[in-house]
Amino acid sequence: MSRRGHAAALPDGPHQRPMALEHDGLVVTHRDQQGRVRRYDFGTVLVPSPWQRSLAVLFAAKCTPGGGWDSVESSEATWYMVRPFAEFLSALDQAPQDVDRLTAGHWNAWRLSLPPNTNGYSKYSTVAGLLQHDQRLAQPVREAMAQRFTWTAGRVEAYTPEEFTAIRVAARRTFRAALLRIRTNTQHLVAWRAGRIEPGATDWLLGEALDVLARTGDVPVYDKRRTVRKRYRAALGGGSAPYTWGRLCLSRKETAALAVLIVAELGLNATPLSEMPVPETQPGTVEAGTPVYRLRLEKRRRAGHRGRFESRNVTDSGADSGGRIITEALEATAHARALLKQLDASVDRLLVWRQTTPHDGQGYPNAVRIGPFGLGVDELAGAAWARSVGLPGSPLRRLRRTVNVLHRREPGQNTQDTHDRVYVAGEPQVQHAAVPVIADGALEAVDAARRAVFTARLAASAEAGNRQTATAACAGWEISPFGPAGQGCTASFLMCTACPNARVTPAHHPRLAHLLRALDQLRSVMEPGIWEADWADAHARLTDLRGRLGEPLWHEALKAVTDTDRALIGHLLQGDFDL
């Protein structure tokens, strides 16, 4: 794209000019908090000139400090959303000449022209959010914009365990090779500076070249064509990145691999990770052999809200601990960070990489660059690394979902509600894992309900052939549900209230009422755990029976308790009853 542009909404209309506007109010310059610059030329937008000026003013207000767009990614994304809207308006037979001429019919037609997916929703919501800042926008149009846009979100699913392992292995292979390269050359540099390498030898020349690299950011080279000076060519072994600046610095792809490992370990967002300052080491922890790092994270999308800033402590207690990757990251980026401080002492970033050509943004338009150094990673960097190892697309976003949903199982820079609703609820692996848990819970609930429900049948009188037990009459002693068929029932008489073969008549009511009162008395003198294990189920079933009979009838039953009832229940509770 050759030229760019946009502006912001001012209370008194689109003809006041914020400082971001240039060239007759049609060109907007956006300089973000990281010093990156983008220019947007609204003279190239295919709408009438009043529209061009109005859009430029709306755009410019968002680009000014405090206007809402803290990064050029925000302005650039909106620019690409506004242009299709402008093209739609220009194709109308009777196109509105400015914002105040836009009607609800125009807006609804625009909405219907959009695909019902994430891309369509983004265009709809972005353009609506921008235009609503112009006070001249008609109320019917605002009401039309408030209508829900029906769309289907593309599903991002967590990696399977096999995919997750393969990505970590590939990232570890890339980063490990880089870390060992930097570590080996650092050790050589330390030895050279300590005078432990004999002068004049090839190893000494390599040490001298590394010293120049550590101090200046590059090995000794000729200025015009950037070729390694003849004196050091044999010692360095070549003129490409791994033989020159790569001896002490990570490349963009290697930094992306490092970011993949950090996300796979800690579940961080790519942007907060990219912008994360150098972690602070808690005092005394390095000397103790277990460094504790304090990570300072900022989620810029939460600007003005709680939760924008977060700190997290991670401990390096060994090779399999979450803090080990932070220790290795500090080691791998140490030289690049030291050189970056010489260029700009205000920069504080963990992820710093180097490129041979120090052109601002060459090949990497969204990367923050200071001289030959780049800061952080993005999805493009993740995709570039993935292609280099044969993986499809950047893994950063799916990795974060995988870690937070399946491994950490807790929010990562999200609220619990967002974590549950957006990440967990729609994840197929979570749903699959939940099936047996839900089934077990349902069975347990049914079993508990059965234990707590009086199952015996209430009858007016005992039937011929029923056997009397201590608590009921039995109509099926030979076919007990608590034992093998044909062998007779051997269950406790307390289980009669849970047996469909039992018949409880009014003659049994006093005895059962006395049993419930006795169980209450036992509860007051026994250890709770023992009472729950031995008597709780029987007590629950008798309580259910009392509810069915009603309190008046239950009180009458208690009044009718006989000495025989008391004796039978006493033997039953003592366990020496035999019928």
How helix-rich are the residues, as a percent range? 40-55%
Structural class: alpha+beta
Number of strands: 14
Radius of gyration: 38 Å
What is the approximate shape? flat
Biggest sheet layout: 4 strands, mixed
Terminal-residue CA separation: 97 Å
Number of DSSP helical runs: 19
- Low-confidence segments, ≥5 residues, pLDDT <50? 1-19
Arithmetic mean of pLDDT:
80
Strand content: 5-15%
For the largest sheet, list the strands in their spatial order.
Answer: 11-14-13-12
Q: What's the gist of this structure?
A:
The protein is an alpha+beta fold. It has 19 helices and 14 strands.
Present the secondary structure layout.
Blueprint: E1 7-8, E2 21-22, E3 27-31, E4 37-41, H1 49-63, H2 72-90, H3 104-113, H4 118-131, H5 139-145, H6 161-193, H7 202-216, H8 230-236, H9 252-266, H10 270-274, E5 280-281, E6 292-298, E7 309-315, H11 324-343, E8 352-354, E9 368-370, E10 373-375, H12 379-388, H13 396-407, H14 416-424, H15 428-452, E11 457-458, E12 467-468, E13 473-474, E14 502-504, H16 509-525, H17 528-549, H18 551-559, H19 563-574
Parallel strand pairs: 11-14
Antiparallel strand pairs: 2-3, 3-4, 5-6, 6-7, 8-10, 9-10, 12-13, 13-14
Description:
This protein has 579 residues and is α+β, with helices and mostly antiparallel strands. The chain has helices spanning 49-63, 72-90, 104-113, 118-131, 139-145, 161-193, 202-216, 230-236, 252-266, 270-274, 324-343, 379-388, 396-407, 416-424, 428-452, 509-525, 528-549, 551-559, 563-574; strands spanning 7-8, 21-22, 27-31, 37-41, 280-281, 292-298, 309-315, 352-354, 368-370, 373-375, 457-458, 467-468, 473-474, 502-504. The strands form four sheets. Strands 11-14-13-12 form a four-stranded mixed beta sheet, with no helix packed on it. It has a three-stranded antiparallel beta sheet with strand order 2-3-4, with helices on one face. The N and C termini lie far apart (97 Å).
